[in-house]
Amino acid sequence: MNLPQSFIERTRQLLGEESYSKFEEALQKEVPVSIRPNRLKCERTVEGEPIPWAVSGMYLKNRPTFTFEPLFHAGCYYVQEASSMFVERVLQEYVKEPVTMLDLCAAPGGKSTLCRSALPEGSLLVANEVMRNRSQILAENLIKWGHPEVVVTNNDPADFTELTHLFDVILTDVPCSGEGMFRKDQVAVDEWSVENVDTCWKRQRRILADIWPALKPGGLLIYSTCTFNTEENEDNVAWIAKELGAEVLEVPIEEDWGITGNLRGKEFPVYRFLPHKTKGEGFFLAVLKKRFDVLDETPRRFLKTSKCFDKKKKGKDGKQPLAVPNEAKTWLNESDTYQLTMKDTSVVAFPKAHEAEYTLLLQSLKVIHAGITLGEIKGKDLIPHHSLAMSTALAKGVFPEAALTYEQAIAYLRKEGLNLDASVPRGYVLLTYQQIPLGFVKNIGNRANNLYPQEWRIRSGYLPEEVVCVYENIR
Question: Taking the model in full, what pTM does it have?
Fold first, then answer.
């Protein structure tokens, strides 16, 4: 790896000669492989080394063939860089009761799925991504994760400014110069420059200023980057504390974790992951609490009625919206805790407990996924949606099930046609692999129509001679 000379000089000055030599040597080594199992879906044991700051995180000895493991596509685990799992440590320390949380720059979804697992039940997570194509990837990963108390939005940070005091916690993993990604992303090395660092810290402050009114007084801002320099890290934390009005909080850590503190010589605590000291990629994090004396715009009031759910609005063609089919309610566990509504031809279930927040989000933001999409009405049929198959709220036994072999599972995930056993009843069938739902088909007897989302399919047409999986070796 040929590092930019300006980066070498700046980082050597920041770390010191001896530490920099170890740092540069570490950048030449392989990136540790780490995952985080989804305990709501799969309780199986994962062989590996526990990540000390993450409850479920594991370092793996070898890199599995993730693309060709059906349980990966079923949302049984997420492939996430170990250092970034430190966000979980923050939530464990400071979030003890249900909250409304925003993950502002959330794609592809690693920290969002982490936060959703770490938050107390009854919390609402709003995961946002400004880039449209990346927001679709974010929605895909959160749908696969399967938790219903989630909203995915596609908005600019400035769109959240008017949502005054809505969020108890905001995670801002802001776009940065990407120095911490040098080891696994040559593009980050090629695009690095001092000028880009300068552009990044200024943009980060604009983002923070936009989002600050949406945080409640006393609420938590988790600020993180995947870069090493102090302009985007300590200097920005100092700016937040001084200009926006915040107290920097401490997160208890163990010495043997190898986390580095403040490199500016300032007193406030920050948490920097350096590849020669911690087993992971470059990462920086600070936690700030919004002071109660901070003056923001007058808070918008939540709508405490159910008009968002119940008011029947005419569509663009002037027709009344379709009615929610009665059978849709039977597809959910604890269906009475959800409100079912129509979004065009789709049936959406959203937790009633978050009605007020959801109403406000629909009024102000571009919502691309919320709760559970149960199905789509086509003619007289209600076709079950893949979101339902992935959801932990799917009622057991409501659909007939068919267990797949490994080869059948890969064919299904490639969106190929399937021939099921003659004993499988006709109609909509839930396919499983090792007792974990993979998705739906419509069995018509001589074949089964594949209902796996076209845009999520495995595009590779070959199969490796050896498939190494997290839970087992296939061949």
Answer: 0.94
